[in-house]
Structure prediction request, 351 residues.
Amino acid sequence: MRIVSCLRFSCLLAAVFAALASPAHAGQADTRLVAQNVAPVPFEEWLAALRAEALARGISQRTVDAALGAVERLPVVVERDRTQAELTLTLDQYLKRRLPARVVRSAREAAARHRAQLRRATAQYGVPGSVVVAIWGLESNFGRFQGVRPTIATLATLAYDGRRQTLFRDELFSALRILDSGEVEPAALKGSWAGAMGQTQFMPSSYLAFAVDADGNGRRDIWASIPDIFGSIANYLSEHGWVRDLRWGREVRMTDTTAARVAAAVPLRLTGPCRAERDMSEARPLSAWRELGVTLKNGSALPASEIPASLVRVDTRSFLVYANYESLLAYNCAHTYALSVAALSDRIGEK
Prediction:
């Protein structure tokens, strides 16, 4: 379920500041994002064929009529998709822009305000509340920004546009299945210009696979229900390998000599659909990194532990990251994003 994306608040900035890969929503170059020819038929003809295919896939006539009966292309969506700027910021610059003092303060206040709901999500899925709040804050500014674009029209526009037809066509059928389930009314199905929805900024396929009804009202409401929002974020991470009671990782220090020794001894992964993961080293036990001369940021020795960790180097900074870091990359495959979540979650817990 690799998907590209740009969120109204989080992914949009991420696309502006770095070339991000985004599975939970949408954004990087991934194996599904192969350039395709522009749609060869007028939009109305294409839409008529789409309606017929939706019916053939089992979508009800009522849903097809309600969702696709009068849908129109949204030129602004095409413009956004084709004009994503990519600026080069250092990690320090990126974190400074994404995590100013007001964001950290809001995150701490949100964690305190929603302590009970976060504890329930942690108890069920094993994901710390600080991590859930960090993702929530970076994805939707703690629920303030979740997108106003009509999801069906957005996805229909992007599916027709031609640059990533297969990706967005699949997401469009997922959105129609959401409507067909009756959980969400067509008018309420809104999100970012790339089709990411709600305060979790899930793409429709992610909603179908990972959204949960944590408040027990029979609907998976990632737009307004805090329990559903927190539960869905935690469930997503859990389903992507989050390990209970394990850190995301830690910042480390390497001298030039150590860096050369590491480069010779531990290769990069180089494979996989996510570019950020390809840029990580193969995993080695912490004890092995210790023997290579890697230390904690403050110069102290690493724990003599057999926990596997991979090296991530961004600009002049180095991190040893555990399996939980890869769960963060599953949400949005970019080191800037994952390290932003990690840094914010750590700061939430600071006194």
Remarks:
- The CA atoms of residues 136 and 267 lie 34 Å apart.
- The two ends are 37 Å apart (CA to CA).
